[in-house]
């Protein structure tokens, strides 16, 4: 069984001693014996699910060896902030300039 979690904007997952009272915004508390796994989300934007079908829609995992050199080069270029080299334009720069005006 796989538990899939998304923290949303304010969520966090952590272990706490079983004898501690769960926090006010604990959405899920899983009893793991001596500890509890607590999923806390103040604004309730995140989620926990057993449905892992969303994972299949994600891109390649960078550490599993399936990532090709071409895809890795694109990912590294984006990470370096050079999106315009990929898109062939500087539309994102024009957008930022518009926001400053």
Describe the fold and architecture:
The chain has 101 residues and is of the alpha+beta class. Helix content is 26%, strand content 26%. It is built from 3 helices and 5 strands, in the order E-E-E-E-E-H-H-H. The strands form 2 sheets. Strands 2-4-3 form a 3-stranded antiparallel β-sheet, with no helix packed on it. A hairpin with a 3-residue loop joins strand 3 (26-31) and strand 4. Residues 89-101 have low confidence and may be disordered.
Strand order of the largest sheet: 2-4-3
Give start-end ranges of low-pLDDT stretches: 89-101
Q: What's the end-to-end separation, in Å?
A: 51 Å
Residue-averaged pLDDT: 75
Shape: elongated
Secondary-structure element pattern, one letter each: EEEEEHHH
Number of strands: 5
Structural class, by secondary structure, is alpha+beta
Q: Output the radius of gyration.
A: 20 Å
Q: Tell me the strand percentage band.
A: 25-35%
Number of domains: 2
Tally of helical runs: 3
Helix percentage range: 25-40%
Major sheet attributes: 3 strands, antiparallel
Summed up, what is this model?
The chain has two domains: 4-49, no CATH class; 59-100, no CATH class. The protein starts with a strand and ends with a helix. The chain has helices at 69-79, 83-87, 91-100, and strands spanning 4-6, 11-17, 26-31, 35-41, 47-49.
């Amino acid at each position: 069984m796989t538990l899939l979690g998304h923290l949303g904007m304010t969520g966090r997952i952590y272990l706490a001693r079983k004898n501690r009272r769960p926090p006010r915004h604990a959405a899920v508390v899983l009893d793991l014996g001596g500890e509890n796994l607590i999923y806390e989300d103040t604004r309730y934007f995140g989620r926990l699910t057993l449905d892992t079908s969303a994972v299949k829609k994600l891109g390649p995992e960078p550490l599993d060896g399936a990532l090709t050199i071409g895809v890795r080069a694109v990912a590294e270029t984006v990470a370096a902030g050079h999106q315009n080299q990929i898109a062939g334009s500087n539309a994102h720069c024009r957008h930022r300039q518009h926001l400053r005006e």
